[in-house]
Design a protein that fits this description.
This protein is mainly beta and 336 residues long. Helices cover 15% and strands 39% of the residues. A hairpin with a 4-residue loop joins strand 21 and strand 22. It is globular, with a radius of gyration of 22 Å.
Length: 336
């Protein structure tokens, strides 16, 4: 077993045990596995990478917030990334047929990126993010999908697909379903009303809060409205797993064709969705190569193999989900 393989095995075995403790420290927003950096250059040393919103001098941190050089025998590296957010706004305008890399969106959002064309039983579907096609859980099957997205001028005349399916985002809580709790809340709200209080109680159910993807499918209204070849790139050649140090590229609605490199794997990260924090697990970080509006873009290696689906980031990093996980979730295959 090589040293790197041994480190990955050790890190993955300890990883979940360290997550709660690390996220309890000040400014920590993500944890993954990658190569340690020194003066902006990767050293080749595999490390536990801790992403922070702001890197502070040690004298400004309490003892419990300081990240030690080693954790459970694992080398650490603290990296300032800023706050991560879901990329949903800010052209890849109207195109017929619509191509991956162009503007798209649910009728009630701003705009994102058409990621890939996939198929199930010979039927073509558009793959992008939940927050692009399903309005962050606030949509239902059959809703209209515009190309271009509304912020790029898309209207009801530009419907090319309807929402077919999405993986719900778990925000850590849902509406309460317990009859006892709902009955108690109703009784207490009645009492509050009688006493003149304007406050009311609502029941909520605590959920695990861990998300594996931000993804959704839309069914094309007609086969000739879409094509699988990516803008500026051409057809995909297959699927591959993201690897540390892999050179990658993407075509997005906002920044077009850009390139980067995979910097972390097995990442747990908190992402801001319009003020609500959503935790994602088993994600991948790449170097900064995207901006708001690029959400939903396909991440490819340099052989044009799909490796992931972009959904967020910051000025210091891009976040994506390994594509094979998403294809299996929706039981679809790539269209070439």
């Amino acid at each position: 077993m090589t040293t790197q393989t041994a480190f990955l095995t050790q890190a993955r075995a300890m990883y979940q045990q360290l997550i709660p403790e690390l996220f309890g420290r000040r400014n920590v927003i993500g944890v993954g596995i990658g190569y340690k950096n020194s003066e902006g250059q990767a050293t080749g040393e595999l490390s536990l990478i801790i992403s922070v919103t702001q890197k502070l001098p040690i004298e400004q941190l309490s003892a419990q917030d300081v990240i030690p050089k080693f954790l459970n025998g694992l080398l650490t590296d603290v990296v300032e990334t800023g706050r991560f957010r879901a990329f949903a706004n800010d052209p890849r305008i109207r195109r017929r047929p619509a191509q991956p890399g162009s503007s798209i969106g649910h009728y009630a959002i701003t705009a994102g990126t058409l990621g890939l064309l996939v198929q199930r039983d010979g039927v073509p579907y558009i793959l992008s993010n939940n927050h692009v096609l399903a309005n962050s859980n606030h949509a239902q099957a059959g809703d209209s999908i515009y190309q271009p997205g509304p912020t790029d001028g898309g209207t009801a005349q530009d419907v090319i697909a309807t929402l077919a399916d999405f993986e719900p985002l778990d925000f850590g809580q849902k509406a309460g379903e317990c009859n006892i709790a709902n009955t108690l809340a109703t009784w207490l709200n009645t009492l509050a009303k009688w006493t003149g209080s304007s406050h009311r109680l609502e029941t909520v159910r605590v959920t695990p809060g861990d998300n594996g993807m931000d993804a959704a499918l839309a069914r094309s209204l007609a086969p000739d409205l879409v094509t699988s070849a990516l803008l500026d790139v051409g057809p995909l050649t297959g699927v591959a797993e993201p690897q540390l140090g892999m050179a990658v590229q993407k075509v997005g609605r906002t920044t077009g064709l850009t390139q980067g490199v995979v910097t972390q794997i097995d990442v747990t990260v908190n992402v801001d969705y319009s003020g609500r924090s959503v935790r994602f697990v088993n994600q991948v970080f790449a170097s900064p190569m995207s901006a708001p509006g690029d959400s939903g873009a396909a991440i490819m290696d340099m052989q044009r193999r799909a490796v992931g689906l972009l959904f967020g980031g910051s000025d210091r990093a891009t976040i994506f989900t390994p594509i094979q996980r998403i294809l299996e979730r929706f039981d679809v295959t790539l269209m070439h």
